[in-house]
């Protein structure tokens, strides 16, 4: 009988394996864990943006019911705990290293942002810990606060860190200023734009949580945490903060409810619960309230830039000049310094043939929560700048905005393409993604829709963005030369069990991406094993040899490639075993989806025959081959990957209220080879929603005193279902040329390409109102003011 | 301390609670039903939605004592004893309506209530408006809306099984 099994390999929309548990409430998130004897922690946080701590009185709190221990910055200093390390060092223009002030796990002598942790209270219950924290008396001496870039750089601003002049972390640049200035001097036309990339709060739906557990018999520590990269947390926490051998520390990141970058970094609470568990002799659990998350999770974006294009008389870009100020927050989060530099300025060529580029970036400390990578990280900022500037230029040059983009595209036959800002793109086809997106979005039919909307009293606009990003991070030697204090390879182990089922250990971490399914598809495709028989293990340093984790759309491109490499080793060994079993020479053995065959014959062995022989080596080339069938590979990428594409947004604005409705959104992205189309589409949908959130709704606001005004989900507007239209997603593939799968990455494209498309549409809708630029988010209040304050012809 | 007696997923429980104990704390900490999640502290996200006497309720904004005598259904109580998923669960899987899964229990419980209260059937736009109490940061809602639309056809007896998603 023929059994037809559905194709589950590369290219199939396999339904997700992980969904069964998530849909039945059987997920295993950090806060769901309860360790025997567990206590609960509450973190007391600063209510001030900037203050001296004159004293902390814990006497009354310590006597409260259920309290096991209270620790302050003085205690962690006395215990010799290190500060939170920064994983990337940038050098300023003059060659000096960036300012890297200490980042203590509990504030010591000074607090520098609202939410800065001041003490940890450990008690029998969470309520008791919280009650006791309220009884701690901290004697603060408020200092002038500088939450904004402007305030922090003002003459006479109070230094946030001793010895950091002018609150400048670094003043960096890329490119040849003289060459670029000369190109501007000789240009036919120049176009400049000042723009802000609004500060965002990532707001993964699962708040951060951590459980620390010290085993007094072995001296081992275990940390369960909401992390995108448990091995990195183990390394940073053990080596830098707790000063323990890594062998004594296990970090487990179980199911994680979304990350978007915010769960990459090593946070103080992780080290605190781990350390405190040894102090109180019991496991310690901490789970953030959403309010705490707002004031302690790393924020994203927060740039102010001036951007200028120089054009020749035919509308070809001659040069780009950019000056950016980036808000670092009060301390350097783990990867913060690389975001506005190597993840941003190196992207400023975009999809265009701009021959010369100069960018300077000033990173500034402020009295706000640290800022680090958030979905896209640097690339959304670069894309927004380029695509807004492109639209402004098109209007001012009197060239159609699509035509101006086309005229400057890197042609499809120009790859590999070396940009003037370090990166070398391997593949892409921007005309095709543009053409496809214009077709699907019915760009040509827009004027009819505009007229129809006008008849209903609505202002309708359409906007486009053609973009590129660099992900699949990253070649270790390259990032090392740019200041990374880590390698960015990935690790994969393929364990073929005696009976032929397979366990994959991967250093990538899934927090919504569906790795348990996609990675199983890779194995199924290559080794011919059903997806159901492939288990993906991730997120536990005690199980997985090593790993750098998931961020920068790297899981498939780097983690998947490591698995492919490990499978190649399995196949190579399997061939030798098969050759022995079939008495043939190794060179004559072929392998295809689970079957080893002596070339040109019908003599075959299944993978399971090989695995049985490998673990029960009775008839086995034992002299030359070890038993067992398990292989590990480290894969270090040769280059970044370069997804790109085109996004088109269509909006309608209500003239009475100024409310912007996004009515259509189309994304055509080149993410390289697609393993699971259903999952890719879902990733793009989600990314677009976050990009639309940035463009229309979200903004993290501090007042002039450094109080976090948008500090809850009531004040910070997250996109809801009725804020979004159905989003059309399609892919157009060119393959990545340098990884074994040809994949580029799809996790961030939605958030990178969409914000400028939306704002371009809003500005287009308001074309009768003489508006050149609108800052994000384009709220009803802003639009209403434009409509009502305008002297444009429509208002007349 | 006061006692509360309630039925959860068909099983009767009596527990000691503080006056300030929330229903979600009772479910997660005392009964160890950790499928119901907490995503915020301002009653905005809907990660905590359960059914109390057949109505969807934010269990983070309900005192445990207020559920005395009530019948509560959580995400753990939806699938049949033999493991057969509820049509809404099945539709969420078929339409890839979840990524990290954190909003999912509340989203599914809200969606079931929304469909049950609207036997006339809902348009996609109405479904979007009906989800006003639930946040999802991962999916962009597109597939959640599709899943609910597919599930309502089965729940209202218009189809015998969930329509396959377009490939
Ligand atoms: S936890 Fe957010 S609404 Fe209940
Ligand atoms: S699936 Fe992650 S928040 Fe909805």
Which features does this protein show?
heterodimer; A: Aldehyde Oxidoreductase, domain 4; 5-stranded mixed beta sheet; 20 helices; B: 167 residues; DNA polymerase, domain 1; 30% helix; globular; binds FE2/S2 (inorganic) cluster; iron (chain B); 2Fe-2S (chain B)
Your description of this structure?
Chain B: Residues 2-78 form the 2Fe-2S ferredoxin-type domain. Chain B: It holds the Pfam family Fer2. The complex is a heterodimer of chains A (796) and B (167). By secondary structure, chain A is an alpha+beta fold. Among the domains of chain A are: 146-423, Aldehyde Oxidoreductase, domain 4, CATH 3.30.365; 489-635, Aldehyde Oxidoreductase, domain 4, CATH 3.30.365. Chain A is built from 20 helices and 28 strands. A seven-stranded mixed sheet of chain A has the order 3-5-1-12-9-10-11, sandwiched between helices. Chain A has a five-stranded mixed sheet with strand order 7-15-14-13-8, with helices on both faces. Mean pLDDT of chain A is 96; it is low at 791-796. Chain B has two domains: 3-77, Roll (Ubiquitin-like (UB roll)); 87-155, DNA polymerase, domain 1, CATH 1.10.150. Chain B is built from five helices and five strands, in the order E-E-H-E-E-E-H-H-H-H. A five-stranded mixed sheet of chain B has the order 2-1-5-3-4, with helices on both faces. The interface between A and B is large, with 59 and 58 residues. Bound molecules: FE2/S2 (inorganic) cluster (2 copies). The site of one FE2/S2 (inorganic) cluster (FES) has 11 residues of chain B, from loops.
Layout: helices, strands, pairs:
The complex is a heterodimer of chains A (796) and B (167).
Chain A: H1 19-23, E1 39-45, E2 51-57, H2 59-62, E3 67-72, H3 73-78, E4 110-111, E5 117-123, H4 126-134, E6 137-142, H5 149-153, E7 168-174, H6 177-185, E8 189-197, E9 209-215, E10 220-225, H7 230-242, E11 249-252, H8 268-280, E12 284-287, H9 290-296, E13 303-311, E14 317-329, E15 356-365, H10 379-397, H11 401-408, E16 417-418, E17 424-425, H12 430-440, H13 446-455, E18 458-468, H14 476-481, E19 490-496, E20 502-506, H15 515-527, E21 534-538, H16 555-581, E22 589-592, E23 595-598, E24 604-606, H17 607-615, E25 630-635, E26 644-654, E27 660-670, H18 677-697, E28 727-731, H19 749-765, H20 780-789
Parallel strand pairs in A: 1-12, 10-11, 14-15, 20-21, 27-28
Antiparallel strand pairs in A: 1-5, 2-4, 2-6, 3-5, 7-15, 8-13, 9-10, 9-12, 13-14, 16-17, 18-26, 19-20, 19-25, 22-23, 23-24, 26-27
Chain B: E1 3-8, E2 11-16, H1 23-30, E3 49-52, E4 55-58, E5 71-73, H2 87-94, H3 104-116, H4 124-130, H5 142-155
Parallel strand pairs in B: 1-5
Antiparallel strand pairs in B: 1-2, 3-4, 3-5
